[in-house]
Specification:
The structure is a homotetramer. By secondary structure, chain A is an alpha+beta fold. Chain A has a 4-stranded antiparallel sheet, with helices on one face. In chain A, helix 1 packs across helix 2. Chain A is elongated. The two termini of chain A are about 20 Å apart. Chains A and B meet through strand 1, helix 1, strand 4 and helix 3 of A and strand 1, helix 1, strand 4 and helix 3 of B. Strand 4 of chain A pairs antiparallel with strand 4 of chain C.
Chain lengths: ~100, ~100, ~100, ~100
């Protein structure tokens, strides 16, 4: 299992991004992928790289459809082979047991 | 107000980082800074860059004290001058209004 | 055209990563994708998200084959629709005209 | 020695960032810090976290002075205690010896 987080930053469309963040969350909801919105980025849980990257590509396409002409995306991926991980398991560690 | 998130990745100390994550959270708690732990990183709310960067430096020093010989830190900063922002306000946007 | 950079950080395999960086560069060379190695990450030029993400997945698989049990990957993507971009065009801006 | 790279993304100021990138490079040149411009970010070599963070704060202040109302900064830091590192030593690894 892969846990990742990502943020898509629209350039050239004013300082507010909330409109775009909501559209990306709607897209994630429709895709059925497990996600958790955070203050700076959105965490995703994926079974494969294809699933993870498919969602990030769709988020970029969504913003492009909405008229954004330049999109900067940051992604951080935790790919762990020695142990099952999930958004919950990683939050458990992070929030303290 | 500045909202940021960061993650400190210990290299050379096994695949588990939970011990180090807990130590960084303890340090944040003691510093009195407002933070929110996420699955991939920890969000921070700071009044100044000095406050934000002071905490990230201390997190690196903490891991070094614990014996980590190489630390990779990722930081993303949202510095907004047109509007007050906070972890809550950004979560509000992200969780949908 | 998409320009991106990425770094794959092996956890649990000592503090040195040069062995792994060289293997990823070899893989990039064989894939025929245009890339530029930097001190902190490797820049890639791709025609599609599939091409970019395919390479990042292969880099993760390569490290896994080499025995790495946990891999943290950072990616930053510049997806621009209003203008053709390339590693060179972006370096030109960055190095000053 | 610390090696890092960073990028400052101006929001709300059109899709072109070259004007701002040049201003940040000018600021780095004046500060005397060692840096290397890349296609996606600028690498810095610093003796201390203060030096590194001082430069990133100044880059944010510079963009604010130029009228940018929201700035997203990404930073990745390599803090290594077991070995001297530099932009050159890390490029040497990355470009292959």
């Amino acid at each position: 299992m892969i846990v990742a987080d990502f943020a898509t930053i629209p350039m050239g469309k004013g300082t507010s991004a909330s409109h775009y963040v909501l559209a990306v969350h709607e897209l994630l909801r429709q895709s059925g992928i497990k996600f958790a919105a955070g203050p700076m980025s959105t965490a995703i849980e994926a079974s494969t790289f294809e699933e993870l990257f498919g969602v990030i590509e769709k988020a970029n396409e969504k913003l492009a459809e909405m008229g954004v002409q330049r999109i900067i995306t940051s992604v951080h991926i935790d790919y762990r082979l020695d142990k099952d991980i999930s958004i919950e398991s990683k939050l458990g560690i992070n929030k303290e047991k």
